[in-house]
Amino acid sequence: MKKLILLPLFVAASVYASSLGFNENRGVAPVTDKFYIKECASCHFAYQPGLLPERSWVKLMKNLENHFGTDATLEPQDNKKILNYLVDNSADKFTNYKRSAKINNSIGGDETPIAVTDTRYFIKKHREIRQNLITQKEVGSLSNCMACHTTADKGSYSERDINIPNYGKWEND
Ligand code: HEC
Ligand code: HEC
Question: pTM of the prediction?
Answer without folding.
Answer: 0.90
